[in-house]
Design brief:
The chain is mainly alpha-helical. The protein has two domains: 118 residues, no CATH class; 102 residues, Winged helix-like DNA-binding domain superfamily/Winged helix DNA-binding domain (Arc Repressor Mutant, subunit A). The strands form two sheets. A three-stranded antiparallel sheet has the order 3-5-4. A hairpin with a 2-residue loop joins strand 4 and strand 5. Helix 1 packs across helix 3, helix 1 packs antiparallel against helix 4 and helix 1 packs parallel to helix 5. The longest helix has 25 residues.
Length: 243
């Protein structure tokens, strides 16, 4: 075997650590040690899965057997028992290659190391937050029953009747379409018969919008406004389309 380059050692060590993190996150999910929302937020939305795919592709030419294209699941939550078994089995291939080229002394790319460090945070019960773009995120529907919506599989809960009614009515409107505040007010009143919740009229609805946006920015880690206001109308900028 030709002498491995520093880049090969680095890629192998990165693949080994990322792969091990995936196995540990699967174990933590199955045994209910760590919330799946935090695990899949890191695995899917913050890029750990894609980073591991890239590292595996880099070292694949040097491995005894090539990894299957379906080796990595789309989500940890959706991993089947067969995928789990295949992952466990193939880990030995990665370990053997890393050992043979003495990869354990290699330096890992800082971006990959950051993901490995994030995995430790999640596995120890913490939350990983990075600034995200809502346009690139999975924004779910608002649940009136749980008073929450999910962004990248992380639930965000809201308090207060004004926020609750505002979210309920805005997720019933077409995406990207501005709706006059009085139309929204009438829809809320027709559904709930509560004329007092927005007794301040337009201004109280604007304040509810500000509080909702502020909560989303804090909890999801974004600078984007899910809702915007202009010319006495409110618009939802992200999330599912209403058909």
């Amino acid at each position: 075997m030709p002498q491995p380059t520093p880049e090969q050692r680095s890629e192998a060590y990165a693949a080994l650590n990322l792969y091990e993190a995936v196995l540990r996150m699967r174990f933590a999910y199955v045994n209910r040690i760590t919330a799946i929302t935090e695990i899949d937020n890191l695995y899917v939305h913050l890029g750990l899965r894609d980073a591991l795919k890239q590292q595996l592709a880099s070292i694949a030419p040097y491995l005894k057997s090539k990894p299957s294209k379906k080796l990595l699941p789309e989500t940890i939550a959706g991993m089947t028992n067969k995928q789990d078994w295949n992952l466990q089995t193939y880990f030995g291939e990665i370990k053997t290659y890393a050992k043979n080229i003495k990869a354990h002394s290699a330096t890992i790319d800082p971006r990959v190391q950051s993901l490995i460090d994030d995995a430790e945070v999640v596995l120890n019960g913490g939350r990983v937050k990075r600034e995200i773009l809502l346009a690139e995120s999975e924004v779910g529907n608002y649940s009136y029953e749980t008073k929450s919506l999910t962004i990248n599989q992380t639930p965000i809960t809201f308090g207060g009747n004004q926020e609750d009614y505002f979210l309920w009515v805005m997720f019933k409107q077409r995406l990207g379409v501005s709706i006059s505040w009085d139309v929204l007010y009438d829809e809320i009143n027709d559904e709930f018969g509560d004329t007092q919740v927005f007794r301040g009229g337009l201004e109280s609805m604007r304040q509810a919008k500000h509080r909702v946006n502020r909560t989303i920015k804090t909890e999801a880690g974004t600078k984007d406004d899910l809702f915007t206001y202009k010319l006495r109308g409110f618009k939802r900028n992200f999330g599912p389309e209403i058909t």
